[in-house]
Amino acid sequence: MSDQQDSTPGKMLNALICPLCGERNACAYAEGKPHSECWCGHVSFPEGVFERIPAEKRGKSCICQQCLENYVREHEQLFCYNQLLFAKSDIKSRLLTRIEK
After folding, report:
1. Which domain holds residue 31?
2. What angle is formed at CA 53 by the lines to CA 48 and CA 54, rounded to 5 degrees?
3. Cα–Cα distance between 61 and 81 in angstroms, integer?
4. pLDDT exceeding 70 applies to what percent of the chain?
5. What is the C-alpha separation between 72 and 66, in angstroms, rounded?
6. Which of 13, 9, 3 has the alpha carbon at shortest distance from 55?
7. Phi and psi of 41, rounded to 5°?
8. Looking at residue 34, what is its pLDDT?
9. DSSP for residue 20
10. Closest to 72 (Cα-Cα) out of 62, 60, 80, 83
11. 63-91 residue pLDDT tens
12. How many domains, the chain?
């Protein structure tokens, strides 16, 4: 990857900067190393993580590992919360069914 023009006049997108947080993304490929040496080749990216990147910055630089971890942590918490709500709803439904009988 190389520096690419941002949609904002006079600004360059640096391929070594995370488009979400603005910190270094530690992209080995953007540093000229083989893609196999990059941290991103050893992790999974959940569906939806790239939707956080503004459209004009997508595909121009990689997100950093911290932003990936933050996304995963937030969505795990949301998943657990939704599971809890579902369980509470299921228990309530079972109790109401017993009461109606």
Report:
1. 4-100
2. 130
3. 32
4. 63
5. 10
6. 13
7. -75, -5
8. 92
9. T
10. 80
11. 999 999 999 888 887 666 556 666 666 56
12. 1
Dist. CA 17–CA 64, nearest whole Å: 8
Q: Residues 16, 62: contact at Cβ < 8 Å? A: no
pLDDT at 25: 95
Please enumerate in sequence order all residues whose Cβ is within 8 A of that of 95, keeping only pairs 6 or more positions apart, or say none.
none
3-state secondary structure of 25: coil
Is-contact 13 19, C-beta < 8 A?
yes
36 token code pair = 């196999």
Percent of the chain with pLDDT over 90: 41
Q: Residue 3 and residue 24: Cα distance in Å, rounded?
A: 14
The full length of the chain comes to: 101
Segments in the chain below pLDDT 50: 1-11
pTM of the model: 0.64
